[in-house]
Amino acid sequence: MRAHISLLSLTSLASLAFAFAGIRPEAGSGTYDMKLTRTELFGLISNISLGTPARDVTVFVDWTWINLYVLDSVCKGVKNAIYDCFPQSQNFYNESESSSWQYVNELGQTTWNPNHFFFNAPATVNYAREAIKLGDTTIKAIVQASDFAFKNPFPFAFWGVFGLSPVFRGDSIQTSYSPFYQGWKQGVWKSPYIAYYWCYPESGKGTKLCKGSDAIQSLGYYNSSLARGPITWYDNIDPSTTEVNSVDFIYEPAVYNYWTLRLTQLKLGNEVQAINQTVVPGVVFDHATYGRGAALSNAAYANLVQKVNGTAVQLDQKPNNGNQTFYEFDCTLKNALPPITYTFAGSRREWSIIPNNYVVPHPTDNTSCILDIRVVGEGQAYEIGNFGETFAKDKYVIFDFNTLRVGLADLRW
Length: 413
Hints:
Residues 44-409 form the Peptidase A1 domain. By secondary structure, the chain is mainly β. The protein folds into two domains: 10-216, Acid Proteases (Cathepsin D, subunit A, domain 1); 223-411, Beta Barrel (Cathepsin D, subunit A, domain 1), CATH 2.40.70.10. It has five helices and 26 strands. Strands 2-3-9-4-8-7 form a six-stranded mixed beta barrel. Strands 13, 14, 15, 19, 20 and 24 form a six-stranded mixed beta sheet that branches. The chain has a four-stranded antiparallel beta sheet with strand order 17-18-22-21. The longest helix is centred in the last third of the chain and has 10 residues, at 298-307. The radius of gyration is 21 Å and the shape is globular. It starts with 9 loop residues before the first helix and ends with a strand. The relative contact order is 0.17.
């Protein structure tokens, strides 16, 4: 099991678990396009309907989370006490106003500390059943009900986290099932596929393809007409074989439900860069803020900086949230930069990020540019990286919950 959950009896598991991953249910007819809005601080948000009567809830859409996290009224174990933990401006889901909300006490409570939401502050959840409505599709799902344990100084722009992480064989506990996966097991979705593309401003394509939003997260299908050329499919590897919980997304208990591939080659132009072969070099898909910036190793980043004589710079407005140093360079040298090219296990096909997609303007100096590179870990050779917003430019990204595959294609604008 990739997400380790405590306080669960074998009796509870038998009565509450769906079928194992990889067993196809009867297909329904449901499909839905989530319209996504990009936020600078968090990533992509959207709206869903929750409860009875249905209430619109703004959610952070997250490929790396395992369920639907709902910010309810509970603070430090006390209901209707949310403002003891948040400013008065924080929106939340009032579970007492929904007739379909039902706590599932036999699933107990889970606390992650540390975690990747609040870092060294605990993230604690109870579990409940609730109705989730996405377009014409309704799912009765197990959700994570928040129990905040500390005072948060600022409000969030959302009051839920809509997880879309994969479910592995053996993850039979509903607490680690994404709401999409739960719906698929209930037979409400047309297929086990979800797909993503985004209309980034620099593309010059406008937002017509994205229906007026910044990006689209499709549920229950993918649109083959959006693929320019063939779709290349890759088998998802076991994320627990990578360094993800050591240097990337650190949880205790560990969470290992990620869409993950193995990197087999990294190049700057035609120059092959070193990959650490003593670990499994992981490619973790994340279209939130941790997926911003092109993924490189420390050594490859240094090689790239050298090509444009980059100099270290302190920025108030950083292009990504990595811990690496940022470098500025003369924008007239941008044409000297190579594409960054990746190859993943399962195909020889190469996937590139062109310089226009990993170079951003300096926030205050219009003659200087910044390399939008993100490095994870301390080693010189590549060990692990996050692939999201920057990598996904001009690409169509598909996830298959049934066979645990990742599909990639060039996006047809």
